[in-house]
Every structure is written in structure tokens, then in C-alpha cells.
């Protein structure tokens, strides 16, 4: 493989949720390493720093409602139409509470069936739908690569003392759905290996989207939960992403890479 071990040259990545606070940073890393990227999501929120990639034809944001199978299917069709072969799928999109800085009802006795179903749909079911829809494209070209973005809360329970009484707790649907993503990753790795499709996951730890309005005392408490005594920076996910998306991980499947400053280890 030589010095270009992590190159993405000649690869097209379909990236769901690529306009979020973590997704947009990961999308830029893939572009910088040579990939063409089709971002599937509801809205285009990428700023002017992505314009060069749009102009040279290596980036397209395709409006897609990933909560609907028909829209999801059409999004993949448009991605292939624009870029030709589809080589990698990154399942990053999430909705329904606990994702993208959005809160939802977290008190167990007040969660309705509708809230529960939307939360699980926006974490686990969305990953299933996108995986299902890309398989025909991978089969036509003889293989492919899937990277699922999970969460530390798919592995451990939240410490609610960190949240306190003024900050909404992370809802149970998010962790339950992300735990499902981790198992779905292992299942797909086993089921799809014979079709030359690799499936791995990345588990981010605490990567809060910090702004001027962020409660700094909350960040201090959250930082204290990690061995490194700080929260993560979005770009610190790029190493794991490039490893799993590139041929550097050609003999890896069913693997979960945890990027959490040690939080899940104690």
C-alpha cells in the first residue's frame, strides 16, 4: 500500500447526515484525502469552505428524507447517477432526540409510543434502510464498504449526575438504537462478507457541539468522565474514519473503533 495507505482517490462515498456538526468535519476529511462525496440529508448546511469541492464535481448534497424508504432509494439512485460507482457508505444521520443537539422527552413514564418509535427509527432503522438500499450497488460492482457511526451510549448508560437538573438527559431511545447499530454492524459483517462487503463502526465518546450558549459547567463535568479530562474535537474522529473507509482496513470487518478519551473504559 505504501505511503498512500489512507488515500481515498477514486472512491465515491455516500455519507448520510454529512451536514451535522460531526458529519461536516468528516466529509471534509474524506474530500481532502481524494474522495468524491454524495451527502444525503434533508438540508444543505455546508458553508462556503466546501465550494471548491462542489465546483470540481467531487461534492454533491442530495436532498433526501431518510425517514422514508422511497426517498432513501431515490437518494442512492441520484448519487450513482452523478458519480457512477458507489464504493463506501457512511451511516451518520440520526434524528428523533439525542442527536444533533436536539433534546426530546427522556422521562420513561412520559415517553409515548410515538416518541419511542421515532427515536429508534432515527438511530437503528435509518441505518438498516440505508444499508439495504446500497447493497444492489455494491453487488453490481463486486463489493463495498460500510462504516456505521454509533455512540458511547450504545455501550454505557449516561451518568445523570453529569446532566444535573437543568440539562435534558440523553433519551433512552438514543442509546437503545445505537446499541442496535453496534449489533447490526456485527451481523452485517458476518452476513455480507461472502459478497465482498466489509462493515465496521466508529463509537464516538463525548463530542458536544460547544457554542457561546453552552453550559461550561456541564462541559467540565462531562470532561471529568474521560481519562483525558476533556471532551473530543470533531477532527479527532477523522483518523478512525479514514482508516475504515480506505484500503488501510482491507482485512477489518465487524470491528468497532472507540474514540472517547477513555470514557467507556472505567
TrEMBL record:
<dbReference type="Pfam" id="PF13561">
    <property type="entry name" value="adh_short_C2"/>
</dbReference>
<protein>
    <submittedName>
        <fullName>SDR family oxidoreductase</fullName>
    </submittedName>
</protein>
<comment type="similarity">
    <text>Belongs to the short-chain dehydrogenases/reductases (SDR) family.</text>
</comment>
<dbReference type="InterPro" id="IPR036291">
    <property type="entry name" value="NAD(P)-bd_dom_sf"/>
</dbReference>
<dbReference type="InterPro" id="IPR002347">
    <property type="entry name" value="SDR_fam"/>
</dbReference>
<dbReference type="GO" id="GO:0030497">
    <property type="term" value="P:fatty acid elongation"/>
</dbReference>
<dbReference type="GO" id="GO:0016616">
    <property type="term" value="F:oxidoreductase activity, acting on the CH-OH group of donors, NAD or NADP as acceptor"/>
</dbReference>
Amino acid at each position: 500500500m505504501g505511503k498512500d495507505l489512507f488515500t481515498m482517490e477514486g472512491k465515491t462515498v455516500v455519507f448520510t447526515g454529512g451536514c451535522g456538526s460531526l458529519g461536516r468535519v468528516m466529509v471534509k476529511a474524506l474530500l481532502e484525502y481524494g474522495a468524491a462525496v454524495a451527502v444525503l440529508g434533508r438540508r444543505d448546511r455546508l458553508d462556503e469552505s466546501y465550494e471548491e469541492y462542489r465546483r470540481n464535481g467531487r461534492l454533491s448534497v442530495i436532498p433526501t428524507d431518510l425517514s422514508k424508504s422511497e426517498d432513501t432509494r431515490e437518494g442512492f439512485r441520484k448519487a450513482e447517477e452523478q458519480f457512477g460507482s458507489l464504493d463506501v457508505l457512511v451511516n451518520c444521520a440520526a434524528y428523533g432526540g439525542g442527536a444533533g443537539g436536539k433534546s426530546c422527552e427522556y422521562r420513561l413514564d412520559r415517553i409515548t409510543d410515538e416518541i419511542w418509535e421515532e427515536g429508534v427509527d432515527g438511530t437503528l432503522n435509518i441505518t438498516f434502510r440505508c444499508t439495504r438500499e446500497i447493497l444492489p450497488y455494491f453487488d453490481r460492482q463486486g463489493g463495498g464498504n460500510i462504516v456505521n457511526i454509533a455512540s458511547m451510549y450504545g455501550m454505557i448508560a449516561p451518568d445523570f449526575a453529569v446532566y444535573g437538573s437543568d440539562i435534558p438527559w440523553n433519551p433512552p431511545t438514543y442509546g437503545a438504537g445505537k446499541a442496535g447499530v453496534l449489533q447490526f454492524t456485527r451481523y452485517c459483517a458476518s452476513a455480507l462478507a461472502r459478497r465482498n462487503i466489509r462493515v465496521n463502526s466508529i463509537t464516538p465518546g463525548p463530542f458536544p457541539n460547544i457554542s457561546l450558549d453552552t453550559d461550561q459547567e456541564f462541559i467540565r463535568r462531562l470532561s471529568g468522565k474521560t481519562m483525558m479530562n476533556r471532551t473530543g474535537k470533531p477532527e479527532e474522529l477523522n483518523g478512525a474514519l479514514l482508516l475504515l473507509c480506505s484500503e488501510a482496513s482491507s482485512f477489518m470487518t465487524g470491528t468497532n473503533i472507540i474514540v472517547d478519551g477513555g470514557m467507556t473504559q472505567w
